User: What shape does this take?
Amino acid sequence: MLKNRLSPLSKVLFALIVAIVLSLPQVAEMGESLLKRLENRSIDYRFLIRGPDRYTLDTPIVIVFIDDPSAMAYGYRSPTPRLLLADLVNQLYDKGAAVIGIDVLLDRSYEDVGEMFLGTPGADMVVSQEVLAAANRALAAALSRAGDRVVLVKNFSIPVDGVAPVIRSDILPEFSRTTHEGYSISKSEGDDFHRWTSIYPFPGGHHAFAATIYRLFTGRPFDIPERLRLSPENPWMLMDFPGPPTRLERMDHNFEAFAASEAAILPEALFKDKIVLVGSAVEDLGDVFLTPFSTQKNGYLTSFGVELQAITLSMLLEDRFIFAPTDVQKFLFQTAFFTLAALLFLFPRPILALAMLPVCMLSWAASGTVAFVRCDLLIPIAFPVMAFGIAFMVCQAVIQLTEQRYSRFLRSAFQQYLPPQLLDKLVSSEGEIALGGERHELSVFFSDLANFTSISERLDPEKLIDFLHIYFEEMTSILFRQRGTLDKYIGDAVMAFFGAPEPQDTHAVRACNTALLMQRRLDELNEAPPPNWVEVHVRMGINTADVFVGNMGSNTRFNYTVMGDGVNLASRLEGVNKLFGTRTLISESTLTHIRSDPAAAERFFAREVGRFIVKGKKKPVAVFDLMAFTDDATPDQKEIKERYEAALAAFYDGDFDTARAGFEALWKEKSDKASEFMILQLDYFRENPPGGDWKGDIPLMTK
Assistant: This one.
């Protein structure tokens, strides 16, 4: 092998290796960590593409918002008036609420927060300790009355290492004696958008707020689906946001929602046997969160914390979750996709590979979006999309080191021998260039300038060089137009062949076309010579045979050439033109190949010169004079052909007198040198009669 290139199997194996490396859990985890913010934004866009999905309307959840007017009716809004909470608990209990979830922290006494409370915006209000103490007692009494149906939220945090939860502040004892409790926590991962929550039951009896409500409502504990694969180290679950945040003033609620001030007058049917979640709806108090549906279009509308609780609880009640694939599933899926992409980046030309890059990226993003929308499956998008870019660069680097280097090598090695279209085909093929050859039937072409030695002696070196440049440029351009392969220039001679490296069924036809077109062009140049041109004549020989074609030489220097007896015969035919006064001689095998196509056979006008045993050969070869294209043949050429072949037939039959008369007449009338040559042969046979096995074969002792 002269230069390395990737075989199809090597490309497949390399693509698989690239895909496996990029799909390894360690690599994927590192990449996803680096692109966490981009991944989160891709999750947001998937929610937006899915659009509002208000499946939660069928769940038995009602939200009671403690809005600004509801709070201010009790004189202040921060902290949430506890007398308001007491009234709500009593009202909801009386109206048959199955579970009352209070998403308001009750972890500090009024004495801790002081006597100053924010009333109306821009004004302060002082509330007496007696009023505050009465509110505490009222709430404690309400919770004691409805305690078994009430779930209170407590402040909670999960350390980064996820080993054990931390209770930041607990519920006051007077409120927690008869009630249930549950922790609430969500995370934003650095961009202020809260997408993840936890429902993991941590050791020590720490259950999530939503999970505790689920247990009270259904009478059974919530079993976390195995597919969520939650653990103390990774307790986070993606919330399934149904749509833009709920607002009392908007019509498109995700859940049934009412203001706290309306609870007393609303009908019992709205609350009976339902889960009622109570939470703050005062934005500047801080219990607000950006979600995937908080967009520039809606002014980045935030969701209240109590609505996030409702979303989480509805997921538990409906057993509807967004799952991530297992590590094995993700590895196999990514490996398959990356392998296909790497193959696309390896096989085409660089411009096609570059065009495939966005196709692969978009295909993965589309697949991840469809999986999310249709199957609730969360497939990573950000890192795999980046991984396609990495795969592209790696594959193109390999292409540059192998395929492109090999292509440059081929072009440098063959650009002098092949026409551009053949060179492009050779470069784009999957084969490899190796030393050695293969046997193929080709048509071999030789040409040589007649009397070049005397011409070169007459010309100055500069003029000779200019002349040869014009000559070779004209002849080579014709050769390349006929899709021939230039083997070499040998002094003033041209060696070429047809049928390799591009297989050609019409290689003999192309070779003969080349010869006649070259002769025609030389006639034109002789009639209207350009500067530094001298009148010349060219002899040509063509033979069609099985020969060896390939790269001959060493690993560092070689030539794409042909070898074999068929090559030698083409060279001999070129040389013996001077014996017959002809310009182009072709072998019988070449003519037979042409005649296999009737249309091609009619294109050429040729006469048989004779059967000869060329020097170095034992078997006779029928030789033909390729005189012209049939359409260009002159009446004189047609007459010479007819009379010559008649005399030759007599020669083959052993009727030497008739043959001589025919040849002699042609020589005298047409100055046909081939006839002169045959006369000399007949004179020899007159003095040296052939034996009884006469077949008309004539030995040629000259090259």
Notes: Residues 382-414 form the longest helix (33 residues). Residues 114-124, 430-435 have pLDDT under 50 and may be disordered. The chain has three domains: 8-34+324-413, 58-318, 429-601.
